[in-house]
């Protein structure tokens, strides 16, 4: 990593922070206006609030409405401080969609480079699941004749399976490079937790490895997702113990863009998972080695017992949400104990097998690590009453997920106890300028905060309609979208509603795009390029930035209350008033984000439609408080 010079001079009688303040003032009062950018009081206020956070190395919640220029403000500080300390700043985004928008040719980083005549060394560090796995690609190619999988092979660089010096290697294998793969096809060839990268024989030619070596050399900025940042936090100690580098280098500061979503990334990272098919996959590969007959019988016994165990789990699952609550019956606990005993016995046998050198080292390491994870999951399921446990179903597999405890305790200790500038940036971090919900969820005890409103005149450019108990909701949404003169975004709160709309909508003569049908940033590009298209999504409540006629209408299919799942049940159990402390703040924050997708520039205008049930009518006063304009209410009672 080469350290770059500061973008401003420091005289002998100045401190860094004094020179930084002078430069920020010059940029906002002189340089940017000369380049045609409007001087915004909200942006100036935010900038000088951020200066204190950097000076004090503290946590700040920077809540700034759409159009305040918050991204440019935090980027200026992040780059300057990175060069001052010689360590890159980490910008953690909600997801890969927001990452791509931040670094695209028309994004704010490019704008700063052009307006300030400076080069910013920015590199992407995406979640490991966003990269191709050569081992899984080989397996998938043997199992299927899918032409899309063949196309992935044709795209591989020559050095992957051919000759060539390491000096000619370059990063490849990013999910974005294969937009034609839908989510199911991608999951057949991408990295997953069963891949042992450390002992992989093609590791030095792996796209993920090459990407990691590349972004670690960033001089100014590393942009990653919240998921990847939290995976870095949870794994850094174990990676260091194993002689590996942490996933991310030491940072000068950390910016959480759309920081209200950090908690959910932390929950996802701090879990133990075992699936119905994974056990069969791991042990079948192990039994293909030249192991003793005793070991083979034990493997067969475990596979049969594991199937029974999963049948009990599946049979006791509450299927009212995607995260299905598990009823820990006596039979399930008993079977868990039996399975644990058998796996312990197999691990002992594998020690003996390894001494005979009859098992492939890669297969052995994968098997041992996976079995250890299953053992820990079994222990948590049977013995830890505070563990949060649920079942997930995806495509043709079932997955048991166990989270040992609430994440705020670990976040408090492992993240926010560090003396670093931590910047939370979003248009929605508070409920009525109260940041308690977010701070307590993340284990943040000391912080500063501020709120600045959007400079846009929403009354002149936005109309909001609330539809109350519409008996023909799908028909109404279809009619609204059909008559819209621009693009429409339909936001769903669960997959079932999205799937129902897919098969019952009556949208005519418009390209209808569904999240999950292909790589998300490519899907967004299609939506932006076709000004009459319709994008149906579960996860684009935040992060989507599509100005202009391509997004003229946002439809909220239902209020985004949190699901009735084990994670939120645990949060509710720790709240004095679960409705007002958990459910309502979550819904209002997410609804604010969804509404915020419509007006992205001073030239934008459009319509928002929100559908409520009769039972949700009681929340209209709270909803009105967070909406930019007073809604029209249409009741079908």
State the main characteristics.
EC 3.6.4.12, ATP-dep_Helicase_C, seven-stranded parallel sheet, DinG/Rad3-like, 19 strands, ATP-binding, 637 residues, globular, alpha/beta
A few lines on this structure:
With 637 residues, the protein is of the alpha/beta class. Helices cover 46% and strands 14% of the residues.
Structural summary, described in words:
The chain has 24 helices and 19 strands. A hairpin with a 5-residue loop joins strand 7 (317-318) and strand 8. Helix 2 runs parallel beside helix 3, helix 10 (226-241) packs parallel to helix 11 and helix 22 (566-573) packs across helix 23 (578-595). The model has no long low-confidence stretch (mean pLDDT 87). This is ATP-dependent DNA helicase. InterPro entries: ATP-dep_Helicase_C, DinG/Rad3-like, Helic_SF1/SF2_ATP-bd_DinG/Rad3, Helicase_ATP-bd, P-loop_NTPase.
